[in-house]
Amino acid sequence: MMNRTAVLTVRAGQAEAHDADIAEARRVIETEAAALATLAAALDGSFGRALDRLAAVTGRIVVTGMGKSGHVGRKIAATLASTGSPALFVHPAEASHGDLGMIAPADAILALSNSGETPELSDILGYARRFAIPLVAVTSRADSTLARHADVALVLPAAPEACPMGLAPTTSTTLMLALGDAIAVALLARKGFSASDFRVFHPGGRLGQRLARVRDLMHAGAEVPLAPETTRMDEALVIMTAGRFGCLGLTDEAGRLSGIITDGDLRRHMEPGLLGRRAAEVMTRNPRTIGPDALGAEALRLMNERRITALFVVEDGRPSGILHVHDLLRAGVA
After folding, report:
1. CB-based burial label for 242 (10 Å; 0-12, 13-18, 19+)
2. Band of the pLDDT at 4, cuts 50, 70, 90?
3. pLDDT for 134
4. Cα dihedral value 49, 55, 56, 57, nearest 10
5. Using CB atoms within 10 A of its CB, is residue 286 exposed (0-12), middle (13-18) or buried (19+)?
């Protein structure tokens, strides 16, 4: 077994190694963060012109790139597609062997290459020029072949790679990825892409759950506990109990929701003659309601703010459903 001195020596050595690891990690992150700040400051009119080209297409945005740029390109294409700009990734080497057929005249091309001299992109460049397909380039060299053949070139600022040898694509790919995100979000803003649009492309997972609409979660039809406001309280209690929501909605002669009776209302009006009274005398008027097209997350916020467990869903003043907090829990909204 190691003696105490040896153990302390090992631990000290490990601590020094960990400190060195953390220092190197911070250097990498700070190097890339500085480059991102430079990129943000360097954006100019070419970014707006690039967006003009990409926003005008009636087809898709075809993203392409080789090596690490290709990996970044796949993520950019996925982000574009999920934010309302139809997109796909085409591998430049595969494009030379038939995949050029994926690119249509109505499309636009977003080509990524740090050097701008990637030979595998040559066939895509020629194809774009032959069929007048708009081409936006992302490169670090304004005088490169890619930049010169592009309709708009977005030139990345000069920045050192975070790799200590300055060889592994690190800073350059971070800049490409950030610029791709900027393009996707700027296009999203131009198109007025909304949370409801977002849910169409994200129906699954936690995000899809949080974007679920009230109409998808509510109870409707015979499940909704409703009665005319002229109903006697003894009858109202029977309907309220059968509904299992802890409340009863009351409607006027026109069928509009005029009030609600909750357990709290019953306690406040508890007296010998309660069961013989009309529901309108006991109900709380102008209850908090929500529309069917509201997000489930908004319904949860209202319930939390008002400290209630259920909301009637109304359309044009008429009740069409009821939503309980348990429905939101089951759907994963909460």
Report:
1. exposed
2. low
3. 96
4. 120
5. exposed
CA geometry: angle 128, 129, 132, nearest 5 deg: 80
Q: Can you tell me the mean pLDDT for 4-30?
A: 77
Tens digits of per-residue pLDDT, 124-148? 999 999 999 999 999 999 999 999 9
Picking from 65, 88, 26, 80, the residue whose alpha carbon sits closest to that of residue 173 is: 65
Of all residues in the chain, the percent with pLDDT exceeding 90 is 68
Give the whole-angstrom CA distance, residue 157 versus residue 175.
9
Q: How confident is the model at residue 261 (pLDDT cuts 50, 70, 90)?
A: very high
- Identify the burial level of 64 via C-beta atoms within 10 angstroms of its C-beta, where 0-12 means exposed, 13-18 middle and 19 or more buried: buried
- The dihedrals phi and psi of 301, each to the nearest 5 degrees, come to -60, -45
Burial of 272 (0-12, 13-18, 19+ CB in 10 A): exposed
Please give the mean pLDDT across all residues of the chain: 89
Phi and psi, residue 153, nearest 5°: -115, 125
Give the Cα-Cα-Cα angle 53, 59, 60 (nearest 5 degrees): 75
- Name the H helices within 115-223: 122-130, 145-149, 171-191, 195-201, 205-210, 214-217
328 pLDDT tier (thresholds 50, 70, 90): confident
- Which DSSP category does 91 fall into? -
Among the residue ranges 21-25, 75-79, 210-214, the one predicted with the least confidence is: 210-214
Strand partners, 63: 89, 110
What lies within 8 Å, CB to CB, of 241 at 6+ separation is none
From the list 42, 92, 37, 46, the residue with the least C-alpha distance to 67 is: 92
Sheet holding 318-324, edge to edge: 289-290, 310-315, 318-324
